[in-house]
# Entry
Amino acid sequence: QVHLVESGGGLVQLGGSLRLSCVVSGFTSDYYVIGWFRQAPGKEREGVSCLSTGTGRTDYADSVKGRFTISRDNAENTVYLQVSSLKPEDTAVYYCAGYAGSRWESCTTYYRSYDYWGQGTQVTVSS
# Structure
């Protein structure tokens, strides 16, 4: 059973930073893809970033490029999303999600590709 547990959200001022964590467990292979998504009230879910453990490939939505960084700590089975230079429009519930991949897998921020989801962590940016 795959489990994804997010943490690290909170209230932050305009221009501030947070580090979101996603602890991953239960994949039977070393190769999987983790994505970060967000959803604000009344808005559609948005793919923010993704990382493939097989190829190391990462990708970002245009809205966060240069401000957000996805990374992985193999020893801790954790994927991080460093969110910086935060804006009010970054306010949302942030979710990590995953699917089993392959050694040659790239990654996608298309939410329908993902099979497993965490419970979410709230990020609120005050102006």
In short: The first strand starts at residue 3 and ends at 7. The CA atoms of residues 35 and 50 lie 4 Å apart. DSSP finds no helices and eleven strands in the chain. The chain has a mean pLDDT of 96.
